[in-house]
Structure formats: C-alpha cells, structure tokens
Specification:
By secondary structure, this protein is mainly α. It has one domain. It is built from 18 helices and no strands. Helix 2 crosses helix 16 and helix 6 packs across helix 7. The protein is globular, with a radius of gyration of 21 Å.
Amino acid sequence: MTALESMALDSRRSLLLDLLRGLACGMVLVYHLNSWLPTGLGQGAMELFFVLSGYLIAKSLAKSVDRKGWPGVKEFTVRRMRRLMPAMGGFLIGALMLNIWLTDVIWTELSWASVSSLFGWYNFYWLREEPSVIGYGGIWSLSLEEQFYVTSLVVVLAVRAISARPAIWLGTLTALLLGWGLGWRIAAYTGVYSPPWVPYIAYLPLLRFWGFGLGAFVAWLELVRPVKATLGRGLTFVATVLILWFMAWMVDSVAFYDANTFMLQWLLVPVGGAALIRLAPAIDAAMTAGFRALESWPIVARRAIFQTVGACRLFGVASYSIYLWHCLVLAGFRHEELFGTTEIWWLMAFLSVLTGLLSWKFIEQRFYSFGAAKRI
C-alpha cells in the first residue's frame, strides 16, 4: 500500500475536514489565478476556512483547558505557535527574497509588513496604508485567524473563572462571536456602518467573526449533543450533495461586493460549511463504508481511487503552506505581467502546489505532528 493510499484510509483524522480544507484552498488558488471566475469564489473559500478554524480551535482549546486547566492554555498556545510560526517564517524569507529580486525595496514597509504578518495584525496595517511590497496580499485572512485565537483564549479564560463547565465556555464564546458578527453585518446592511476604502479588509474582525462563531457553535453542539454516525448512507449522501449545491449557488450569485452580499450570501455560505462539519461523523462513516465496498473492484481501479482521495487529503493537510506560497508565486507572475495564457496558468498552479508541499514537508512537519500525514 502506497503512502497516499494509506492516507486515504486512515481514520485517525476526519477525512471530510481534510477534504474541506483542500476544497477551500483549491477555490482560493483557482480564483486568484483567474479574473473571469465568479466574484464570490475566493471569499466563499475564506468563509469555509473560517468555519473550519472556528470549529477546530474552539474544540481544541476547550479540550486542553478542560483536561489540564491553566497548563492547558500553555499547551494550546505552544501547539498553535508550532503549527503556524515555522511555515510563516519560511514564507517571510521567501517574501524577502522575492522583493529584493523584483522590486526596489522600501525596507521600512517590508519590515512592517513582515512583523505584522508574523504577529497577526497585517489586516490592520494594510487597512491603514496599502504597502508597495509584493507577496503579502493573502495574509489578511491568516491575521484574522490569529485574532480569533487570541479572542477565544481571553473569553474562555474569563468565563472559566466563573464556571468550570466547558459547555459554558464554548456557549459564551459562540454567543459573543455570532452576536458580534451578525450585529456588524446588520449594521453594514442598514447603512449604520460604512466601510473604509478597502471593503473586504475593513470587514475583517467585524463581519467575519460570524464564520468563526458558527464553527464554535458546531463544537459546542458536539459537546452537548454529539451527532451519531449512523445517519444512513443514502440520507448522508443526499444531505451532503444538497449542502454543497447550496453553497455553490450562493458563491455563484455574488456579482460584486456590497453590504447586501455580506448580509445575505456571506451569511449563508458559512452556514452550509457548519452543516457539513456537523455531519462529519456520518459523512466519514459513509465514505469508509464506500471504501470497503470497493474491495470487489479491480485492483488498478481501486488503487487509483484511493490514491486520488489520498492526494486530495494531502492537499488539504498542506493547505496552510500552499496558501502561503501561492501568494508569492502569484505576486511574482503578476509583477512581471505574465498572466494571460493557459500554459502560464498551469505553471503558476504547479509552482504554488510544489512550493507549498515542500514547505509542508520540510518546515511544518519538523515542528508539528499531522498524525497519518507524518508518513508522507
């Protein structure tokens, strides 16, 4: 059995969540490498990423704090830093080399962009003044995720001082995130809130916390009412297809950014992502049963399917590094005005995935354990 086949069949991680990461990362790559695609494709991918982060981080934080108390906070923080900082450090070295190679470097701007990227406030730096450095365009979303981590820590620690029940911590965090995100969306929709000159950046810690809140809500539901994996393969398949179709329809319906799209489409896209995550145990069980049903197939066809699933899963596991390095690849080609042909599109896609996988294998895996993926 090859490494990719083993990865496809491993049950220690949720196959659905890995595939959803890969789907979101693929949506971002395809959107950034094309100008003719639906406006909502890239933003829909971000909403999906935020829901996934909200679920995984809320669940991980609650588990660490519930099991170890205050030492669990340190455990969670160290785990997050090991997960994020090494790959970000590699990205910053790449960004430095790219800017020295292609631009007349303004060292002050490059320094501020690098520091704000590393410590999670690049979105605010960009909002204040759009820098002339290249390669940092996609870091706003990662900064928002770090702001969510800090917010979660503060809320959980504050509530834990009052109640020792994890359900209370997650419930409070969920209510605050959903109330904050929905409140700002309503404010933008009604005109009470008028965004500054970069709309989707200005919305970041405001409207975007809605997606994180939905993910935290799923983690809370899982704690108080675990979902059963025995939903039924037929019903699970139909529900999954309908949810994915609904999300695709919402993404395709966005023609331009305004308060209406943020209130309507971007309110509903992460709801679909949250529904999929909630059904993850049933979907994973259905996919596992489907794999077992392939045992009667010819070995060539079976191996091809497993290797394809394994490759898609690897793409999802390595999505953080792929996302980082696609920013540099895209910036370099855009700066040199090399867009426009099918060959260039495939070259950019290939380099984005290749550099991302190299970063994942030689940087991320040195500091962070990915379970079965560690063997790849």
